[in-house]
Design a protein that fits this description.
This protein is 39% helix and 16% strand. The chain is an alpha+beta fold.
Length: 140
C-alpha cells in the first residue's frame, strides 16, 4: 500500500483508507494461510532446498553430541572452518542465529545425519502454525 497516493486526502479519510487496506491485506493473508500445508512456510522450504544445492563442503568432523566442524571452501583456494551446534542451533558464521534458518554449513551437517529432518531445525517463527495463528479472526 502506498500512502503517497492518498496524501491529498483529509486526515480522517486517509486513516479510513489505511484501515481498509490493512483489512484487505489481513484477509488475503488469512486466505493464504488456510492453503498452507506442512510444518514450515513454503518460501522457507524453497530457500532450504535452494541452499542445499551446490554446497562446497570438504570435510565434516562430527561428534555424537550434535557438534560438528565443517570445512567449507569459500573461494578458489581458501577454506574456512565453521562449528555447528545442533543443540543450541548455532554456527560460527552466525547466519543461523540471526535468521533462525539453518545456514549452508548447518544444512550440510543436518542432511548428512540419517533420519534427521531439516525442517525440525528451522525456528518456530517460520512455521505454518504460527502464520495461521497470526492471522486468525481479528476484527478491530
Amino acid at each position: 500500500m502506498q500512502i503517497k497516493d492518498h496524501k491529498g486526502k483529509h486526515l480522517d479519510d486517509l486513516m479510513d483508507t489505511i484501515r481498509q487496506n490493512i483489512l484487505i491485506k489481513w484477509n488475503n493473508r488469512k486466505r493464504c494461510a488456510q492453503k498452507f500445508e506442512g510444518k514450515i512456510l513454503p518460501h522457507i522450504v524453497q530457500k532450504l532446498r535452494d541452499d542445499s544445492y551446490n554446497l562446497d563442503i570438504e570435510v565434516i568432523t562430527s561428534s555424537p553430541d550434535g557438534i560438528a566442524e565443517i570445512c567449507a571452501k569459500e573461494h578458489e583456494a581458501t577454506a574456512f572452518r565453521f562449528v555447528v551446534n545442533l543443540v543450541e542451533r548455532t554456527c560460527t558464521c552466525r547466519a543461523w542465529q540471526g535468521s533462525g534458518i539453518p545456514c549452508k554449513h548447518a544444512i550440510d551437517y543436518i542432511t548428512s545425519i540419517p533420519g534427521v529432518n531439516l525442517e525440525d531445525y528451522v525456528d518456530q517463527y517460520y512455521s505454518v502454525e504460527t502464520f495461521k495463528v497470526a492471522y486468525e479472526d481479528f476484527y478491530p
